[in-house]
Amino acid sequence: MPHAPVARPILWSLVAALLTGHAPTQAAPDPAPATEGLDAGVPARWQEASPPARQPADDATLVHWWQQFQDPQLSALIQAALDRNPDLRSARATLAQAEASRAVIAAGGQPQLSTPASASRNRVDSSNSKLYKVGVSASWELDWNHAIDTSVRAADATLRSAAQDLATARMVITSDVAVAYFQWRGAQWRQRVARANLASLEETQQLVAWKTQAGLLSQLDQDQARQSAEQTRASLVALGTEVAQDEHQLALLTGRTPAELTGQLGEPPHWPGTDELIARLQVGVPADLLRRRPDLRSAEAKVQAQWYSMVKTRQDGDATFALTGSLGLQATALKALTSGGAALVTALGLNIDWPIWEGGKRQALIAEQKAAWDISRASYESALLGAVQDVEDALVATRDSVDRCQALQAATDAAQRVVDTQRQRHEAGLIDTATLLDSQRTLLSLQTSLATARTDQAQALVRLYKSLGGGWSQDDIAVATPAPPPSDNPLSALFRNEP
């Protein structure tokens, strides 16, 4: 091509200028200071663990902890929530958005190509002229000071935070479903207890009515029996409301309306052996939280993202260098562009932009980013303290629940024997009606307390699984492999005078 000798000297001159220029050598930003000292507040052991934990947390159990209850209905509800819950869909969309944003930023360090074309008509006095152009243009910002690389690292940290936020959403949703499920089952248990006691009270009421008609008891005895029966009947209405509202909560968590959930909740299985589950759970040591809790990992990634944003703000005060070039054809007739009659037009250039005076704006921006970084560190420390408290609270709740449930079970068994004996004595006329009714009310109260205690115990165990970071695995938050950072480009390294 006749025009190639003209373009070649320009190209080699530009490359020579790049290789012999006096660009300052810059090092990639060191991420170590971003999170230095963040984990200083992690205790060596759990205060409420009994006996003290010496083995790491059981990751295999924690990933799908709800399977430990061996309740197919609970597992189905949790799977429905993972598939349909709006909060989880929002977290997935946020992760996809972070992936796309990272790709956009990474693309900024790569050469940009375009194909401009134009047609113009000019008139000067009575003379007309036309000009047609078509070609290829390119531009490339050289990452000599790692500024684009720093932006990509900040985007990577934001992407990691979004992935861990998705894991956090899974951790929260699975726990919320299980807590609501056991609340629903506990209300059903108390409902069954109330119905059984109402049947017993109605038998007592009928017996008292017969004895009153026979003149063996007074109207006072009959009124007392009716009072106890009607009071229990009223509690059944309230329990029915509670059961319905618990079902509505399950529908919300699983991304459905109450009508869609109707008929899908079958007869629940036997109450799980939570005492045994508590006894065999390995809670590990506090340091495990830094690995298992996704909310902590997200907070740590936010600290790193803020650190890189601060570094990038400093780097934006340096000069920027961009290579530009174009290659095209130009002709005064459209047909000439394809018939060989067009002129070859080439251009190569180097754009330099160096902010010399900004009136203190750069220092203010750096101070602003530094404050944002300090805020993110404080947020991490707060999240860490909260995570430690979550585990300690759940540990003491599950530990004490075992003794509480065992004591209530023993008291309930004794109260049942008392009621059986008092009924026989009442039928024999050895005690009055008020004494029998008192023993029945005591039994109802203890049975209700036992159902509540078992419900609290199951929910405390669920919260312990959650506080240990259960409910997710790395496969659940997999993201696409990020593109290499722009600093991997060899010409950028040459411009930085790197080996």
Automatic annotation (TrEMBL):
Predominant cellular place of this UniProt entry's protein: membrane
Region (Disordered): 476-499
Signal peptide location: 1-27
GO cellular component: plasma membrane
Topology within the bilayer: Lipid-anchor
Cellular localisation: Cell membrane
Keywords, alphabetical: Lipoprotein, Membrane, Palmitate, Signal, Transmembrane, Transmembrane beta strand
GO molecular function, a single term: efflux transmembrane transporter activity
Highest taxon above the source species: Bacteria
Alphabetical list of PANTHER family matching this protein: OUTER MEMBRANE CATION EFFLUX PROTEIN
Family indicated by similarity: Belongs to the outer membrane factor (OMF) (TC 1.B.17) family.
Name the UniProt record assigns to this protein: Efflux transporter outer membrane subunit
